[in-house]
Amino acid sequence: MPKGAKRGWERALVTGASAGIGTAYVRALAAQGTNLVLVARNVERLEKLAQECRTDRGVDVEVLAADLSDSRQLAQVENRLWGSPRLDLVVNNAGIGTFGAFHQHTVDDEVREIDLNVGALVRITHAAVASMTRHGSGTILNISSIMALAPFPGSATYAASKAFVSSFSEALHEELRGTGVSVTVALPGIVQTEFMERADAHHLDGVPGFVSLKPEFVAKATLRAARKGKAVSIPGFGYRIAAALVGATPRATLRRFNAVSARSRFGALRR
Description:
Layout: E1 11-15, H1 20-31, E2 35-40, H2 43-57, E3 61-65, H3 71-81, E4 89-92, H4 107-135, E5 138-143, H5 156-175, E6 181-186, H6 194-198, H7 215-227, E7 232-233, H8 237-248, H9 251-266
Parallel strand pairs: 1-2, 1-4, 2-3, 4-5, 5-6, 6-7
Helix pairs in contact: 1-7, 3-4, 4-5
């Protein structure tokens, strides 16, 4: 750990590290003196980011290029969670999303989304919990979405996958109470990153700037919550108010409102 750094996590693994919120997590952790294992498909980006962290922050960085939708490459990441040096923080950030009518996407794309957002996260979390409980300490930060709080016609698979992540993570938070291992789930709102471009979410281009969160803010806020051992982190005061309102609104009303919004924004449900 670099001289003068505050004591925190010794070594963290971050998935989806090559862009967006993932890169923000990497830089925030490096600034805290945390050594890193970076996971993503784009090895060139990972190597560049790793060198930046080594040079600017003096931390040790491993690069583990892997496509988490590939079972063999996913297994390599699981194996690293059992390896040495041990990891005391895992940030499950990798994920993909789709916007538009469910039937207009290929079923293979929808299932791949579930495999990555849910399947890979479950497998990595399982390996992390098994290793961390053996050592009696550790933190897992799973990245969900504010969209997990309600059904979202026009993004049915993505919202459902994030609802799983939230429920799963909160349940594990309670299961692991007293073990020295904690699980925090983060529910960010709109964050302008490459994720939005890959998801073809151009219908959000007109969203007011004050609604959109910066990746750096999301990373710092949710890491702070994870360090405190909180079960849930919703970055941004406005989004916390929105979450409270969603919780007080009848499910049928939310469903209909979101359907009307989807139609007005990008015609997702047009026949």
